[in-house]
Design goal:
Length: 141
């Protein structure tokens, strides 16, 4: 029995619109990651990139449950001595509200070259306006 490997046409990709207003960060990130990988399609194969474009609006209104707003710490390291930075989630939300969703989605994707290509199809906006109206994104509930 031969394994079925689907052929993906770039024109088959659709545009999905997620509204982050009042949604929990982790639960929203799972749904976005699955849509980017194409796991919601019947032709899903892990080695094939069959995902859709995803537009996220109202990123500044995403919800962190419990005390995560103050206690969750994001770390960066420049590679130099004393180059580690520890930034709480509420500071990241003030400066760059889209980065909370970007990091949550990125960490849910496989750690390989495909993930970098998948992340280019993710478009996140802090407010409710986005420049992708011409693509006619479909609202995802």
């Amino acid at each position: 029995m031969k394994t079925f490997i689907p052929e993906i046409n770039v024109k088959d990709r659709s545009w999905l619109l997620f509204d982050a207003n009042g949604k929990t960060l982790g639960r929203l990130a799972v749904r976005i990651a699955n849509a980017l990988r194409g796991k919601n399609k019947p032709i899903f194969a892990p080695q094939i990139d069959a995902g859709d474009f995803v537009v996220v609006i109202n990123a500044e209104k995403v919800v962190l449950t419990g005390k995560k707003e103050d206690q969750k710490i994001y770390q960066r390291y420049s590679g130099f001595r004393s180059g580690q930075q520890r930034i709480p989630a509420h500071v990241i939300r003030e400066r760059h509200p889209d980065r909370l969703i970007v990091q949550a989605v990125k960490r849910m994707l496989p750690k390989n070259n495909t993930a970098r290509k998948i992340m280019t199809r993710l478009k996140i906006y802090a407010g409710d306006k986005h420049p992708h109206v011409a693509q006619k994104p479909r609202q995802v509930v």
